[in-house]
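A.,

Following up on our hallway conversation. Structure tokens first:
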């Protein structure tokens, strides 16, 4: 058996990837409405979110993702509140 001065490292090795970003809306029903709208636009939640982040961060060449017409059920969702500045 070999003696080492450092304890054994546990878990998976680190990578050069960014930390995972979790976005969870606090408004009830917003996730389902977003998924339905993304599907109606021929996309998915992950792709639309990535495009929105790139547009908001002003990444060169980034544009807003396409947006479908209003879907039934969206009227029943409460508008998210903006934090006060």
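Then the amino acids I'd put at each of the 85 positions:
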């Amino acid at each position: 058996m070999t003696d080492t001065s450092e304890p054994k490292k546990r878990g998976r090795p680190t990578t050069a990837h960014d930390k995972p970003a979790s976005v969870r809306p606090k408004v009830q029903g917003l996730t389902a409405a977003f998924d339905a709208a993304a599907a109606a636009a021929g996309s998915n939640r992950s792709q639309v979110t990535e495009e929105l982040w790139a547009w908001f961060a002003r990444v060169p060449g980034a544009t807003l993702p396409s947006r479908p017409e209003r879907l039934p059920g969206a009227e029943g969702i409460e508008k998210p509140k903006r934090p006060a500045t």
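Helices lie at 30-40, 45-56. Curious whether your intuition agrees with the design.

B.
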